[in-house]
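Let's practice the habit of predicting before peeking. Look at the sequence and jot down your guess about where helices and strands might fall. Then scroll down.
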Amino acid sequence: MTALEAQRYARLAGLLLVISLVAGGFGESYVPAKLLSATDIAETAHRVASSLGLIRASFAAYLLEAACDLTLTAIFYVLLRPVSRPLSVIVACFGLFSTATFAVGEIFYFAASLPFSDADLIKVLSPQLRQTVTYLCLTVFGYIFVLFTGFYGLAELLRGYLIFRSGYLPRTLGVLVALGGAGFLTKNVVFLLAPAHDSMFFVLPTLLAMLSAAAWLLIKGINQTAWDSHGCWFGSADPRGQGRGRDRVGAQGGYAGMRSVRRCSAIFRSRGAGDAGGCAVGVYGAAGWRRCDEL
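Done guessing? Here is the structure:
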């Protein structure tokens, strides 16, 4: 991937973060907070029954946020893979699991409206039972949201580390993202071990991190020169002016291999990693040029 292509992904990530913040704030925070009355089942049921349209709108907003989160997981994997491919895979796995877990919680959130919107349930459930089911669904939704925030926090913590190490994204941004992840992780631990001290203030660093990342990626994006210095090209043109890899296959294959070894050796020496080692196999193949430390 060339620096220009990576820059486009970075801009897209910034836009998706903005959409995710707005949609998630509305669908996962604002509307649910207006519905649940912690000590009054009847009042909660009344709020839900009178807000069926709002609940559907908030669920639609969540679906939009979930689509953004899944896309962001893939984009950050691509952008941070040059730093550490194994760690990027781990971050992506945590991110996907978190999104799937929140999806389970959202099922309960949507189900809370069914006793007042589904004609069949209205017929078979008594008014008191409808109130109980609605309250139970919203309560379970809230517990799922809190119980599994630690996985999202771990993903953000590791992602912040990768950003800090990247060289083509600012280290300050990496610190902010890592602190945001630590906030989510702390909230999860406190809720489980010391629930009396749980607070939404723990997630404020995450909000700051998302706002900072969105602004930076939209305005600045990646440092393209630093991206190229990582040797982060594969599958298309070599940004250092060597042409397309497939032009050096066949009769020139051996020469192309020697040039790729020299490039790998230079990159490894610049990182203080010594000899290029296995980079002798770093010629163009079915997958394109491969980065040195992936070989």
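How did you do? The mean pLDDT is 81.
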